[in-house]
Amino acid sequence: MWALVVLTVAVQAATAQIRDEYDFLKMPTLIEDTSGSRFTARLYENNFFKNNEYFGDFVKGYTLTGFHFQPELSYNHNRMLKVQAMWNVLKYHGYDNFSEYKPYLRIVFQPSGSFRVICGYLDGNVRHGLIEPIYDPERYYTNNVENGLQINLSRPRYDGELWLNWEKMILWGDPWQERLTVGHLSKFHVVDKEKFKSDIVGEFLVSHRGGQIDSSDGQVQSLENGALGMDFHWTGSGGVFRQLSLRAMAVQYHAIDETEDLPWNDGCATYMKAHLRLSNFGLTLGHWFGYKFLNFRGDPLYTGWAIDPHNNRKHRYIAFFGGYYSKRYFDDVFVLRTGTDAWYDLATGNLEYAYMICMAVNFIKAGRRKY
């Protein structure tokens, strides 16, 4: 009991810079092109190995190993307008077929330095910065590309993002339902100093399946996860200490359209996490308490919905911790990252863990012609 109290007090929040924890996953579009060139070519390739040793009631163990390959071409009309095309390839080792082998297009319109609209493939996935119980970072290896509409707003005291990911379209008479996800993240900067920042953070994710022109007999379903809390972030001035980030969030679940296959229609949780980075090494520590909590895009280790419905758990008490090493080489062309994570079920004593290694290369070639 005292160990739980000490852990809860020690991690009164979790990483405000969750994107930094997964910086090795960044796709080429995150790297700003400041050359002013009309044409830019980018090549991104990521080889990964991730082994999940899971033994509980909520997800079975499995291994993901393969590569993600993405070439991209950009036409930059000016600083306000870009047209980009990319081919996304996802291949798992030991699996004959490609899991993803498709082209995508998008238009990026940025009429001002604080406002941006994207139509087409999104700056999505882990780059949204949602907490793991709401958005599983492992989806980078399984559902990498999001398509739809994205709006970003950045002001001195506020950063916000709203997006629509259209996952499954229907035409008249199709035997399946349409599927889509709507998400939002807001950060209100309470304190914004050079070495210390504090934010009020709010986020939500809504998943919908339904439609009116399909021939499916499936039920209409809309599920929502949301979170509200505080971020604290300290940055080092050089040397070994790089950053310390803390986050505390109140999390909730709600079934907007109640369906028979759900064990609960409402739930809540608390999420606390600390992230410490020393040089190229990182450590995380956190605690999760969930009551009738369900998620639909988040890490299944945080849900109360078991594989066998007879093992559904109204209460989940989890302590989680992890460590990683991440370093960039050759002017950010090559990234090496390896790490491990563990989740300890405080109610049952069950320990689940995962470990991974990732090597990625990212080349950018800017044309000579300027706009």
What does the radius of gyration come to? 21 Å
Question: Approximately what portion of the residues adopt beta-strand conformation?
Answer: over 45%
Strand order of the largest sheet: 1-2-3-4-5-6-7-8-9-10-11-12-13-14-15-16
Structural class: mainly beta
Write down the overall geometry: globular
Q: What letter string, H or E per element, gives the SSE order? A: HHEEEEEHEEEEEEEEEEE
Largest sheet: number of strands, sense, barrel closure: 16 strands, antiparallel, barrel
- As residue ranges, the low-confidence spans are 1-31
> How many beta strands in the DSSP annotation?
16
Overview of the molecule:
It is a single chain. The chain has helices at residues 2-10, 18-21, 139-142, and strands spanning 39-53, 62-76, 81-92, 100-112, 115-121, 147-155, 158-168, 178-192, 196-210, 221-235, 241-255, 266-278, 281-291, 315-329, 334-345, 351-366. The chain contains three helices and 16 strands. The model is unreliable at 1-31 (pLDDT under 50). The longest helix is centred in the first third of the chain and has 9 residues, at 2-10. With 371 residues, it is mainly beta.
Please outline the helices and strands.
Blueprint: H1 2-10, H2 18-21, E1 39-53, E2 62-76, E3 81-92, E4 100-112, E5 115-121, H3 139-142, E6 147-155, E7 158-168, E8 178-192, E9 196-210, E10 221-235, E11 241-255, E12 266-278, E13 281-291, E14 315-329, E15 334-345, E16 351-366
Antiparallel strand pairs: 1-2, 1-16, 2-3, 3-4, 4-5, 5-6, 6-7, 7-8, 8-9, 9-10, 10-11, 11-12, 12-13, 13-14, 14-15, 15-16
